[in-house]
Amino acid sequence: MAEQLRILTLNCWGLKYVAKNRTERIQAIAQELAKFDHDIIALQEIWVFADYEHVRDSVVKRLPYAKFFYSGALGSGLALLSRFPIIGTSVHPYSLNGAPIDVAGGDWFVGKAAVSIIISHPVLGQVQVFNTHLYAKGGEDGPEYNRAHRLVNAWEFSKLVRQAAELGRYVIAAGDFNSIPSTLPMALIREYAALSDSWADAHPTPPTISSPSAMEAITQFGVTADSPLNSYSAGKPIGPYARKFLGKRLDYVLYRQPVRPLTRPDDPLPLLKCTECNVVLTDTVPGHAFSFSDHFGLEATLEIRTGSQVPADLADTHNVWSVSGASALAGPASELSADSLSTAMQALAACYRFSRQRARKELLLFALCIVILLALVVSSSWLPHSWINPIFILFTIFIAWLATTMLYEGFLYGNWECNALMNVIEELEIYKNTLETR
């Protein structure tokens, strides 16, 4: 008996007032999703609840169960739609999401998180489906501490996935990870959470094309963002990696098997195996010259192998199953490699030092603002002309705002960031010591 799960993930780019052609694109996305035959759909950047309702109502006959997740000041932008009943939900806001002073980036103002639903599947039992959108800034080049916030996201996400599997649940994780496959955040997720990459499993043989076309970069390498074939990427400033490889693979459908319950050591468990994975929604919106989103969608088909279809070595194992490439190997739970662990700790420590230095500078600027404000108060009695008053008042307001901002940035946020970084550093140190004592 062979059944399957079909999953789709899409970053909708649906921020109100900012995203271009949002209304037309969301309507087109809803129409396209209604044509598809997926069991689970994970959406990112669907910030407006009315947009979510429109998509949900368009697919309700196929996917009657859905959850829109709230988090942060402007929402998480995350939603999950399912063919199977939802029996539980959770939201885990990431502890670090950029700085509040980075208004242009905007990550701090939204509630980027790892959200999940637990579905009741007729063959697999409980399946925990995660949806996430990791911190955006940092790119792929330069020192790893530039991506420290994304590293923290990846570590927290990996812990949640591992805990779900240890509870005996199958795990499916989809979303926009803002990381290409070779980066450290993805290494943390693959190694510690033991998640298999659907694209890598469905395309086990690396492409031999040395200079792919833009379409070949999509079909052969799984490019989902910054493609020259996307109307919103064409002509916009992009990094050297995206220029070289004609885009980036940032969107993933990941999965893993559960840890076998000790109470059922001989109970054969079904096996998940990705058999197909494709980039979708690569065309422009019908009747328009713009794309469905600034990301393409990604769909994966996970085959459910049961009974005699499960390899004997997997049927007999009592531990976690790790599936990679075209082979499935039974063995102990995946652990972080020494290189990944060392690099992550160095990156987080570097970011911690940078954060402390920045906080001190911001507190010094706060003190300077207080001195200036005192000088303004004293000098206000000797203004030579009345027309200076409005300028004087505006300047005073600006200095007061700057002082307040620097106090918040340097003291409250600075301590928050340092504490969050130190928590992860100490967790990794404990983890490293545990590995060394085994």
UniProtKB/TrEMBL annotation:
Belongs to the neutral sphingomyelinase family. The keyword Transmembrane applies. Signal peptide: none annotated. GO terms for biological process: sphingolipid metabolic process. This is Inositol phosphophingolipids phospholipase C. It comes from the Eukaryota. InterPro entries: Endo/exonu/phosph_ase_sf, Endo/exonuclease/phosphatase, Sph/SMPD2-like. Its main location: membrane. It is a multi-pass membrane protein. Keywords: Hydrolase, Lipid metabolism, Magnesium, Membrane, Metal-binding, Sphingolipid metabolism, Transmembrane, Transmembrane helix. The keyword Transmembrane helix applies. Residues 8-295 form the Endonuclease/exonuclease/phosphatase domain.
